[in-house]
Amino acid sequence: xxxxxxxxxxxxxxxxxxxxxxxxxxxxxxxxxxxxxxxxxxxxxxxxxxxxxxxxxxxxxxxxxxxxxxxxxxxxxxxxxxxxxxxxxxxxxxxxxxxxxxxxxxxxxxxxxxxxxxxxxxxxxxxxxxxxxxxxxxxxxxxxxxxxxxxxxxxxxxxxxxxxxxxxxxxxxxxxxxxxxxxxxxxxxxxxxxxxxxxxxxxxxxxxxxxxxxxxxxxxxxxxxxxxxxxxxxxxxxxxxxxxxxxxxxxxxxxxxxxxxxxxxxxxxxxxxxxxxxxxxxxxxxxxxxxxxxxxxxxxxxxxxxxxxxxxxxxxxxxxxxxxxxxxxxxxxxxxxxxxxxxxxxxxxxxxxxxxxxxxxxxxxxxxxxxxxxxxxxxxxxxxxxxxxxxxxxxxxxxxxxxxxxxxxxxxxxxxxxxxxxxxxxxxxxxxxxxxxxxxxxxxxxxxxxxxxxxxxxxxxxxxxxxxxxxxxxxxxxxxxxxxxxxxxxxxxxxxxxxxxxxxxxxxxxxxxxxxxxxxxxxxxxxxxxxxxxxxxxxxxxxxxxxxxxxxxxxxxxxxxxxxxxxxxxxxxxxxxxxxxxxxxxxxxxxxxxxxxxxxxxxxxxxxxxxxxxxxxxxxxxxxxxxxxxxxxxxxxxxxxxxxxxxxxxxxxxxxxxxxxxxxxxxxxxxxxxxxxxxxxxxxxxxxxxxxxxxxxxxxxxxxxxxxxxxxxxxxxxxxxxxxxxxxxxxxxxxxxxxxxxxxxxxxxxxxxxxxxxxxxxxxxxxxxxxxxxxxxxxxxxxxxxxxxxxxxxxxxxxxxxxxxxxxxxxxxxxxxxxxxxxxxxxxxxxxxxxxxxxxxxxxxxxxxxxxxxxxxxxxxxxxxxxxxxxxxxxxxxxxxxxxxxxxxxxxxxxxxxxxxxxxxxxxxxxxxxxxxxxxxxxxxxxxxxxxxxxxxxxxxxxxxxxxxxxxxxxxxxxxxxxxxxxxxxxxxxxxxxxxxxxxxxxxxxxxxxxxxxxxxxxxxxxxxxxxxxxxx
Length: 1017
Known about the structure:
Elements: E1 10-13, E2 19-22, E3 25-27, H1 32-43, E4 48-50, H2 51-59, H3 67-81, H4 85-88, E5 89-92, E6 95-98, H5 106-122, H6 126-138, H7 151-177, H8 185-194, H9 199-211, H10 215-233, H11 239-249, H12 286-298, E7 305-311, H13 317-328, E8 335-340, H14 353-363, H15 375-387, E9 391-398, H16 401-404, E10 415-420, E11 430-435, H17 440-451, H18 453-457, H19 460-469, H20 474-486, H21 492-500, H22 503-509, H23 514-525, H24 529-538, E12 546-547, H25 548-555, H26 559-571, E13 576-579, E14 582-584, H27 587-597, H28 614-641, H29 665-688, H30 692-708, H31 712-729, H32 732-749, H33 752-768, H34 772-788, H35 792-809, H36 812-829, H37 832-849, H38 852-869, H39 872-886, H40 892-908, H41 912-924, H42 932-948, H43 952-969, H44 972-989, H45 992-1009, H46 1013-1016
Parallel strand pairs: 7-10, 7-11, 8-9, 9-10
Antiparallel strand pairs: 1-2, 2-3, 4-6, 5-6, 12-14, 13-14
Helix pairs in contact: 1-2, 1-3, 2-3, 5-6, 6-7, 7-9, 8-9, 9-10, 9-11, 10-11, 12-13, 14-15, 17-19, 17-20, 19-21, 20-23, 22-23, 23-27, 24-27, 25-26, 25-28, 28-29, 28-30, 29-30, 29-31, 30-31, 30-32, 31-32, 32-33, 32-34, 33-34, 34-35, 34-36, 35-36, 36-37, 36-38, 37-38, 38-39, 39-40, 40-41, ...
């Protein structure tokens, strides 16, 4: 992350005085206006900043009348003075965008360093985290433009300074954890002198002094900060600093420097390791470890070495597998991967083989655009990848053999470790290690390791009795010992007596998996009443992770207050955290929380109903609040990303929960991406509770991002669930909406006959409800489906009727959508002027409402029409505009089509290099088998390009593939285009007989669809 301007071309340094370098040469970009404009753009690379934003950054509120002109002039001069400046600063819409890479700007590298540090810390790689923080902080030279940038840049600089100081504090924490103490004191004093109000730094200094044997100075430091805060702010130190002071006063052993462990070696890029950290206090299981390592050392054969570790929940299966994996890591240097298959995760589905394969491929660094969309493709790619690596694969928490087998291949040099609660007897060639409870001696040693040797050995009989009462189960032992450690005034005997007082609890403690629940109950009972209620309600969350906003909805609290509860439960080890701001239950803890409320066992209990117990009412209220929140948040996010979309009539929003920041497209997009799986789980939750209105309304929102990401099968399944719920509810309006969504999913998936059936039902419902908007939508979808089947004469009047109604209703987004579909139909028929007219109006409407996704669709269809008219230069320009707008608003399949058309336009105007690049990108952007319509269209477009350039064999392969895709779903027009393309290629390859057969078939198909011969030549 350090500077190396001699090798990397143009680079910018904005963290301090502004500098621009071209290799080893300093570039002078101009005066203050130039620097402020450029720094403002570099603060938000890849984003369009309107001119007025740049004016504010340069002049604040004192802009001259010529300010906008001066900004444009400055940009023009920057483009001239910076090497390749025209490609670096581009004009887009109302402003400019800086197209820099992360390596070109020190701020971007600083941000990346902080991210790497977070990830390393979460993975237990503290040395790597400290290195990343040091390198990031080395980039810092001072505030933006050395503090001379004006109020706008000063505000940005203040935010960056806060990030820097937080990183400094994190680095000091890591260094303290690594054993540094006395050497930190001078550095800490320097930072405190500059930032005297930061109590975290004061606490770190006190700790460093105490660990250096300077207890009196540590106490004196507290007195200084207390006096300073009272004099400056009229308040005393916060709770954390006060608690630290008290701990120093009593010379608490908890403040001692942590024992140092060997730091895992840095894993270079290309050799990833996602193993959980090896437990420092791992205890016992020596025999199992020897057995496992011995099998690996002696095993013959060329297939994967498979070790299946089974045992009851909480028996330490994962800990054993992780320990073995770390010990064997040097023998498997290519990668060490861990994945939770969620086989035994309550309220959740086991991870499918396709999803697991995708996660493993991403962990290996395979780019997302190379990972197929369909499960079979992902599994096949994973198997090929696995066969070329010598690595460790830890498949954790497997349901059964069928979940594991698809992820295995042979030959391979991979070691596969599988953990499961079930005995995997049918996993061929697997060596089985079955775990029981721990021996008594190991149980006592585990308690000593967690609780502390001094305290445990002070009550040896009580510790032995505690181990017995915990059933010698590792998870129960760890939770009980951690509970004692959190309560230093409790004796071990006191906890033993608590266990003995409840006969039923003792019985459960010795009855298999329920022993974990009893042990968890001990932690649960130590919570305040309000926190216990919160714990139960959090258990209703259906996703694998929960953020502070969803927690706030469940708990009926603000996000900040909910975060306080989550953090406390995290401290109590009743929650886990793998990423800042996101929390997760261990699956057993989740089961415990849900069983407490009893809500999951009786989802039909209505709040306040006669058959609802107190737990049911509590759970039902929490679930309703969560679903109301999910509906309100998805409404806001979808309205931001898809302006002009239609909503079904509904009551006013009922959610009083605080929503996450969703005021910009980026915020809305990021939130939907992050929460997508939890939102789908929320739909399932609503369905289980028979909250059918929530099912339909929430599903109608969630399908938008699913469509955007090309997750079309999930789009279809979610719509089917919504239909079932709407029928159960007896709500015809909600049923019509859900049927309409399913018809769209069917169209995208090539299920045209099914789509027509559900679209016709939706249309009949709309007519019966006098729902003109629904009538317009469904007749338009029918037009789409009929077009796909080549029934253009039937499709045309439906599309025209749809457009007419939408125009009458003022539904501009919907009208734009139908106009693009109409343009496509006209273009296929060769009626290009009419296609141009429809697409042009679609673009105008889309721009008027700020609907970027529909504008891109309109630009694409207009370009198709212009290509058909021979106006190739115009088409190329339109496609260029579409590409600039398409980022984050198009699905992978639609982006593939846009790139294929761009390749065609570039090829026809003689720009062979970009044509080749775009054609390759169109084919490689992702596996299009999940979107067969686009698969066929892209294959035919690129196939024709190869034919024009004499690459007939390549063209033939593409057209054959396109024909298979189109004929498989009955996509008539692309099936005919594929036949025509095959005929052209075969003719040039000398197979005149086959060419004639294909040409005749194509001509017959085109004639049946009313497509003129000139259009197909």
